[in-house]
Request: fold
Amino acid sequence: MYKYFGGIAKILVSDNCKTAVVHNGGWYNQQLNTIYYEMAEHYGTAIIPARVRKPKDKPNVESSVGNISTWIVAALRNEQFFSLEELNRAIKEKLKDFNSRLFQKKEDSRLSLFRCEELPLLAPLPATPFELADWKQATVQFNYHISVDGMLYSIPYEYIKRKVDVRMTDKTIEIFFNQHRIASHRRLYGRKGQYSTIVEHMPEDHQKYLEWNGESFRKWATGIGNNTFNVVDAILTSKRVEQETYKSCMGLLKLADKYSVERLEAACKKAMSYTATPSFKSIKNILSTGQDKVEPEVKVETTHNNYGITRGAGYYGR
Reply:
């Protein structure tokens, strides 16, 4: 509307509908819908909703409804259109004719009056048009991310378990806490489960692992032994996206610090004897239960009795 007018009105009188006004404070304490309020702030205009069932608060609009129905809607009722763009072009032409028609008792038209009397009083348009946004609430997860339409966006880790307000547009995701913006991300599209993580949002002990990748994990495993390398390589290739396995590889690295590299190599050897696709969990269980330190059982030879369960003379000699 403002683009069509070429300027911004200082006051906008809207209907008292739920899409514009929050109806919980009565007439004397009305609150605008958040998105509607954002639009008013962007254009620097004031919105004053009309009173309920008071058409005289906006009489020009009410009378124009009938005029538009007669001169545009009725005039196009028998025509057929095959796209919304085609229909809009036809409406625009009819609207131009409607505004250019001279009044019956005046020499002016609606268009000439607007250009002479109203257009000079309009404020200029901003550099960019208003971008429609949706709002929702989310709780920051323990991995300092929130989920929006299946995608995950990082928040400063200090806000873990806090509820935040999320503003979503086609291009950006903005996160607010107590009306202060604490994070902003480019909106992700495509495969669900993608992460948008800002390094500064991570705890310090998480940031130091950013330099790790598949090649560095394999190099680290080679320094321990062939069995550890085989386990790490199996984990790295177990997922469609390699980055999804980094957490398990990092877990193995910490197991080496906790139990020693020798025990980790032994545990990997034992796990590989069970399956060709061992997991971090199986290695951890072997180490925590001490199975890597269990010696193989020695088979003790026993005297074979050729007579089965037959009792000998010694039994009866008692």
